[in-house]
Design goal:
280 residues, mainly alpha, Serine Threonine Protein Phosphatase 5, Tetratricopeptide repeat, two-stranded antiparallel sheet
Length: 280
């Protein structure tokens, strides 16, 4: 917190100096922006609420073309907070960063990663805090990361990177298989989504209570696409579901269970040669 108090006056001074420049050009930029939006050449400032819309528009108008410079400076400050594990200061700084540059995907991903992965890991191993406080902060930072992800998806609806970072919070930190499957399912088919996303959707749906039959049908459809999908994890998940759903033996896939030891290959009998020499 001490670093945050030192940082705030500097930020206020920077914003005050920039405001003098930004307020002069704001009316011109606003008129130009409005014309570009009417001509469908520019998206309106993205925000989820009227408050966010007002805050974001004011910041954009005040700083004008210097938004990127200020956001870069704040990103360096945020890394400092990460280094010192000042998670609240980091969260507040990224709130400003994403308001300044809402279309920069990397800012959203970094905020989600720092809060949902790094801050939660710090709470898991921070022995200086009592257990109940570590658990409270763990969940607080996990859901702060989720909140950033949801805002980021609202700003960048086709972002794969934001969704994958969100899935990591649900998968690794909250161990919520149903939510993990939902995020992977929402990622399928989006530009840049890799092939493994389709399989991960099925894997985590298979571990979501009540979704076993749907997961079995889905994974079988992947299996039937061909050998490129016959990966050990996919086969294992199908075999687990075959047992859970009591699938008849004749309908089960023929592949051996990847977790069972495979029989050693039988050696060929040796062939004797003249002179008693044995050739294996």
């Amino acid at each position: 917190m001490k670093r945050l108090f030192h940082f705030v006056p500097r930020l206020i001074l920077v914003l005050a100096l920039l405001a003098m420049f930004g307020l002069v050009r704001e009316p011109v930029e606003q008129r130009m922006r409005a014309r570009l939006i009417e001509a469908n050449l520019l998206l309106p400032p993205p925000a989820q609420t009227a408050f966010e819309q007002m805050s974001q528009s004011a910041m954009m108008g005040t700083l004008g073309g210097l938004r990127t410079l200020v956001a870069t400076y704040l990103t360096l400050e945020a890394f400092d907070y990460f280094s010192t594990k000042s998670w609240d200061a980091l969260r507040q700084t990224y709130q400003i960063i994403v308001d300044l540059e809402p279309r920069d995907e990397s800012n959203w991903v970094s905020a989600i990663w720092h809060l949902g992965i790094n801050a939660t890991a710090n709470m898991e191993y921070n022995d200086r805090l009592p257990k109940f406080e570590r658990e409270r902060l763990f969940r607080e930072y996990a859901f702060a990361g989720i909140a950033f992800a949801e805002r980021g998806i609202a700003q960048l609806p086709d972002s794969v990177a934001i969704r994958l970072q969100l899935a990591e919070i649900y998968r690794v930190k909250l161990q919520d298989n149903c939510a993990t499957a939902r995020v992977y399912g929402d990622t399928i088919g989006r530009p840049g989504a890799l092939g493994y996303v389709r399989r991960f959707y099925g894997y985590f749906m298979a571990r979501c209570p009540g979704k076993e039959r749907e997961a079995y049908d889905y994974l079988i459809s992947l299996y039937r696409e061909g050998k490129q999908q016959h990966l050990p994890t996919l086969i294992k998940e199908i075999k687990n579901l075959e047992v859970k759903l009591s699938i008849p033996d004749k309908e089960r896939i023929p592949d051996p269970d990847p977790d069972l030891p495979r029989p050693a290959p039988q050696s060929q009998p040796s062939t004797p040669l003249p002179g008693g020499i044995m050739v294996p």
